[in-house]
Structure formats: structure tokens, C-alpha cells
Amino acid sequence: MDNRSADDSGSHPEGANAGSSTPVTPGSSSNQLKVQQPKPQALPNRPGPSAILVSTRQKGNPILNHIKLLPWEYADIPADYVIGTTACALFLSLKYHRLHPEYIYSRVRLLAGKYQLRIVLVMVDIPNHEDPLKELSKTSIINNLTLFLCWSAPEAAHYLELFKSSEYAQPTAIRTQQAQSYKESLVEFVTTPRTINKSDAASLISTFGSLQNAVNTQPEVLSAVPGWGEKKVQQWCSAVREDFRVETTKKATAPGSKSQSRTPVPRRLQNADIDEDEAVLRAVLEESHRTAHTSALQDSTSEAPPEEGMSEGVMAALAKLRDTGG
To answer: Would you tell me the Gene Ontology cellular component terms (predicted)?
Structure first.
């Protein structure tokens, strides 16, 4: 019995060592692992109020009755309307501006440096509005204002709603969507004529299989495509078979001046013309020198006194001719 127990105890040395080993404390493992602190993250900016803020000065303005797509509420603000965190609007009636022209200038001074986009929403409610609008345009340029004109209260309310709804819109919202695949580009090309829609384009593509076949096919065959009538076939054929239209831009000329159309001249012809011009120029210069020399000689001979030897003989010959002729 004693030997078996001794053998059993000797055959399992791990158990004896396990009993004598020291237990692992939680503190020892935590010292080995590094504690990673979370990185601080910037909190997103708190969005502004979802409603259009309206100044108490605008009580009774008919514009408020037409703001229906977005909520609005009164607030103590320096502007008439706050339509974004960095945008505001001042309302001005030209009828009121004609009676109190100093009003808008005092309101603009209160907004100095407070908003990035400052709009002056002008209600055109007088017939002779050219001069006041010129004055307001100059004021807007000087004070970095944006001038908007409206002719009715619903139109003015629509502007306010549009600016407020576009407060957080991305610049890509007003960018045209370009076709991403060949199929979209093909449908966009086929629907260029006004009467052809996307379903007509799908019918055309599925019938002929390729754009080349659709372009080269006869009008009688196109009429058999589902949804394609005579008008669509005519517009499609005229669109793919007419010549390209080349529009030339005409340069604006001053009044009284004649515009001459110049055709491009090859360089060899230009060089030949230059050589001919130089030859003509040399000939003209030589001729001018020759005529100048001869004229100088004539002047010198005319200024010289007559020869004395000619007087007696010439006079006698002339007298003899007179006698014989007489």
C-alpha cells in the first residue's frame, strides 16, 4: 500500500508542483497590460433651430401668412429673419423706402459683422422703381449685401423657405447628375429628343440591340417598335441624320467700321507675297530716287543762266525762219 502511494505520488510531479505554486493575483496581470485611454473626439456642431426666426418688427407682415412649408417663431434678433446659423434677411418695401429712405441704412449698420450672408429682400410695390433699385444696388455692393427682388408676398415667403431648407445642403445638391454606366449614358443619348422618354429608349435598345443598328434602321422599321409613333420616329431620324450645326460667333465691331472676313493663307503663299512686296517696294524706292535725281537736275538747269553763245546764232535763225514763213 505504501509503495503504491509512493509510486502514484512520484508519477504525477505536476500535481505536487501545482499545489506548491503561488496563485496569480489580478494585480500582476494588470501591471503587464497597458491601459489605452480613448482618444477625445470633437463633438459635431449643434444644429441651429429648425424654425425660421422672425423679429417682432415683422408682426402683421403678409409674408408670414405664406410661410407654410417650415415652422417659424418670433425671436429677439437684430435682423428681420434668421434663415440659418450664418444667414439673415432684411425685408424692405419700396413704398416704405420712398417715405423713409434712412430706415434701411440704420438696419444695415446693426448687422455689421454678425452674419456671413446678409440678404435684403426687396418688395417691388411701386411703378417707378428704377432709381431706388439703383441706389440699393450700390448700397449692397458697398456693404457686402445680397439683393433679392420679389413682386408678391408668396414669392418672398418662398425665398425664405428655400434658404432655410438649403441650410445644410451640400454643394452637390445643385450639380447635375452624370451617367455612371454605359446603359445610363445610352438612355440619356436616346432621350435627347423631347418626345422620347426612358421607356421608349428601353424599347428601342431591346429591339435593335445596339445604338448603331438603331441609328441605321429605316423609319418604317422604327414604327414597329412598341410606343414609337410617327412623331417620335420623325424626331429620332432628324436628330441622328441631320448635319451638325456649326455656329460661328461674330465679333462686335464699332459702328461705322467695316468688318472684313480673313481666310487663313498658307505659309508658302504668305512668303511669296512677302517676296513680291519687297521687290515692288525696292522698285518703287529706286524709281523715287531716280525721279528725285532728275527733278534735281531740272531745277539746277532752270536756275542756271542761259549760255551767251546761243544768243546771236539762235536769234538769226529765228529771224530767217520768220522771213521765209511770212
So the answer is: ERCC4-ERCC1 complex; nucleotide-excision repair factor 1 complex
Q: What is the DSSP string of 71-121?
A: -EEEE--SSSEE-SSSEEEEEEEHHHHHH-TTHHHHHHHHTTTT-SEEEEE
pLDDT < 50: residue spans in the chain:
1-21, 257-261, 265-270, 303-304, 306-310
C-alpha–C-alpha distance, residues 126 and 204, integer Å: 55
Angle at 220 between CA 218 and CA 221, to 5 degrees: 70
State pTM to two decimals: 0.44
Domains of the chain in sequence order: 52-168 (3.40.50.10130), 182-241 (1.10.150.20)
> Model confidence over 254-307: pLDDT tens digits?
555 444 445 554 444 445 555 565 665 566 567 666 666 665 555 555 544 544
Q: Which residue has the cell 456693404?
A: 143
Q: Is 192 helix (H, G, I), strand (E, B) or coil?
A: coil
